[in-house]
Structures are given as structure tokens and as C-alpha cells.
Amino acid sequence: MPSHPSTTLPAHARTLTAPRHVPLAETTRDGLVESVHYGSLIATAPNGTTVVEAGEPDAPMYPRSALKPLQAVALVRAGLDIPDNLLALAAASHSGAAMHQEGSRQILKLHGLEESALENSTDLPYGTAEREEWLRSGNGSTQLAQNCSGKHAAMASVCVINGWPVQGYLNPEHPLQVLVRDTITELTGEDAAAVSTDGCGTPLFAHTLHGMARAYGRLASAPADSAEGRVANAMRKHPEMVAGEGRDVTELMRAVPGLLAKDGFEGLQLVGLADGTGLAIKISDGGDRARMPVTVRVLESIGLDGVTLAGLASPPVLGGGRPVGVLRAADSLVEDLKILENHLN
């Protein structure tokens, strides 16, 4: 048998051990389970102890856009002082509606900057309706339309405020990104396990679901005059800026007063409650559809009103235009959560 020369894969191509994920959500069609989404989750109490967990919540993962509220805390600490609707936009994965693009432009204008200062990637609007309208008007991919433009406008503005170079603000060694990294480390209570680059070009830090849940609990319960409290309150006051009309994160924050929520690409959902409870969910296949039914079921298990959240809990599966099944939390997870509910009661 001919021999083959050995090769060393580059770091980004090496296969790492996958976390021990478990079934979290399932799709049924006329009583038959058609597909299953695996993942991990954890809910932490205000004192930091674990309320419920499934899978491997202490495995490192990239929180993606769920890091944005933590990044926004760093920006406020560095002097960012803008109206609440614009601060919510700085923590957003927005749909690209006119109000979002104009808001990003406003952040820049307040600090003497033009759109050319942005260093994020270009894209079409993220929201389906917003994208269709944008394309009908003959528009293409732009930096303002990209869902992270509010964050990037705020990052460039903080550079102006502090006399830092605007050009190159995405460099991991730029003073802005060093501050962001240190702030995320503080809020999660853990060092980054790895560093990469997010889709928009921002440095991306790997943390655990455990650390992220802890961070969101801290944000949601922080004093109103702190940087954490300012970001959380801005997001809760303007959930339409954090996501957009028709987005489930917007609906969730509107449904539960005091609740803080942010999604992230690759199946991430983070929630913080006003009492300091934190919740972090990761769907292992990166599917967006499964995170909210799981989120709602866990929130119900720790005492939130299930009737209020019913519209988000089990979206229908259609056949011929009529409901023939549902997307719901997996039976095994439901059974575990029932045990928790009985214990809490």
C-alpha cells in the first residue's frame, strides 16, 4: 500500500471533541417525531448557583451576537452616552429596517463620523420583510444594512470619544477591543477559551453557557445608573431596536416586563431576569427555529407565566397550509423540567 505524507491541519481546520449535547427540541408531524435538535442549556440563580442544566453547559462555545450587550457595557464604560433607542441599537442584531439604518447613521453623526468609518462587512437586511423591501427598491448589500451596524457605529464613536484611532478599531490589540475583552471576562467570570473573528469582523471570544448565563443575570439585575443597567434598560425599553418587528426576541421582551433577551447566530439564546436569574441555550446544529421553544419551556419551569409566552412556545408545523404538528421542547427535557417544577413548588 502506498504511503502518504503526513499533513498538519491549520488550527481553524482541526477537529475538536464535540460537547455532550442532549435532545432539547423536536418537530412532530401527525404524532410522529420527524426531527430532533440537540443542544445544551443552563439556568443560574441570582446567587450564581445552577437551577437547571442539560447537556454540557461548561463546554466552550462562541456566543456570537449574544456578546453584543456585554460589548455595549464596555462602550458605555468608555464614555458612550447616547439616547436609549440608539444604545439598544448598539447591542442589536437588527433587522435592517429604516429606523435601524438611520439610527446607526445617527450614532456616527453625533460623533462627527461618516459611514466610511464603519469596518463591518456588507450585507442585505437580516429581516425577511425588510430584505424584500430593500431589494424591491433596487438596493444591494451595504454596511448600514448589515445587522451589526449599530454596534460598529458605537465602536467607532467610542474611539473618537477617547482619542483612539478610528481606523483599525477591529484589531484585537486596539485599546477598544482590549477593553471589550476585559469587560466580557469580568461579566462572565471566566477567561476566553479561544479567540476568533465574528461574521461582521469583530474579535470573537469563546465562553461557556454557564459564564454567559451568569453575565446576563448580572446585566438584568444591575443598578439603573451602572453601565450594565443602562444597557439592559435601553434594550428592555426598545426591543424593536434590539431585533425588529416580528422577531421573537422583540416579542419575548414585550411579553415579560423586566426580561432581557438576545439571540446569536448558530442557535444561541440568552435571557436575564430582573431578579438576577440567567439562562443560556445553545442548539448544537445552529438551527434558529429550536431556541425559542426551549427557552419558553425553561422559563415556564422556573415560574414565568406560560399563558403569556404560549405564542412562542410551540409554533405549528404545516401540511398543505394547515397545522399537522408542532415544534416543541423535547419530551426528555420536559420530563426533567417537571422534576424541577415539583422541587421548586
Mind explaining what this structure looks like?
The protein folds into two domains: 106 residues, no CATH class; 217 residues, no CATH class. Strands 1, 2, 3, 8, 9, 10, 11 and 12 form an eight-stranded antiparallel beta sheet that branches. A two-stranded antiparallel ribbon has the order 4-7. A two-stranded antiparallel sheet has the order 5-6. Strand 2 and strand 3 form a beta hairpin. The chain is globular, with a radius of gyration of 20 Å. With 345 residues, it is an alpha+beta fold. The N terminus is likely disordered.
Mind telling me the C-alpha Rg? 20 Å
Number of strands: 12
For the record, give the distance between the C-alpha atoms at the N and C termini, rounded to a whole number: 66 Å
Q: What about the largest sheet?
A: 8 strands, antiparallel
- Write down the oligomeric state: single chain
What is the helix fraction of residues, given as a range? 25-40%
Low-confidence stretches: 1-9
Strand content: 15-25%
How many discrete domains? 2
Helix-strand makeup class: alpha+beta
Taken in chain order, the helices and strands follow as: EEEEHHHHHHEEEHHHHEEEHHEEH
How many helices? The count is 13
